[in-house]
Amino acid sequence: YKVLFHRFPNSKFVLLERDADKWFDSMISHSKGKTLGNTYMHSRLYRREDDFYNLGIDQKVLYSTEIDKLLELNDNLREQYKKVYQLRNREVLEFFSELNRDRLIHAKLEDKNKWKKLGDFFGFTVKEEFDVHYNKSNT
Questions:
Q1: C-beta separation of 110 from 18 below 8 A
Q2: How many CA atoms lie within 13 A of 38 on its CB side?
Q3: Which residues, listed in sequence order, are joined to residue 61 by a DSSP beta bridge?
Q4: Residues of the chain with pLDDT > 90: what percent?
Q5: Are 88 and 2 within 8 A, CB to CB?
């Protein structure tokens, strides 16, 4: 977002924040208890480099598109992942607060008015009763 902010000066950004526990539960459910995407990149993003290196794999391509799911995700990691999630959201809010808060809309995913707020932010009308949620799991 930082590069895009500067590269596209008229761009707008959306941060939909979710309850951290629900976010973590969703991530575990989505990935069936394994790291998402490329494990090396995942381990860097979530501060699990030691776990990655302990696998003894000689893979260090940070931007690899290989989906390998090599590390476990479980409840023992909940607080660590929640902390990273909350810090990233805070960093985004601080970045836009310092540079241009009008280019960011921040809403809670659980907010029933989020679609109306998004419409207002982008300049189009959203019906009051509108709601959509794709890829919703049954858990």
A1: yes
A2: 12
A3: none
A4: 69
A5: no
Given a cut of 70, whether residue 136 has pLDDT beyond it is: no
pLDDT in tens, 25-58: 999 998 899 998 888 889 999 999 999 989 887 7
**Length of the chain, please?**
139
Encoded tokens for 118: 């998004």
Mean pLDDT computed over 10-29? 96
What DSSP string describes 61-79?
A: -TT-------SB--GGGHH
- Residue 135, helix vs strand vs coil: coil
CA dist 18 and 68 (Å) reads: 26
Which residues does 33 contact at the CB level (< 8 Å), separation at least 6? 72, 73, 74
Residue 123 pLDDT exceeds 80? yes
**Residues 116/58, Cβ–Cβ less than 8 Å:** no
Residue type, 109: L
Is the CB of residue 84 less than 8 Å from the CB of residue 47? yes
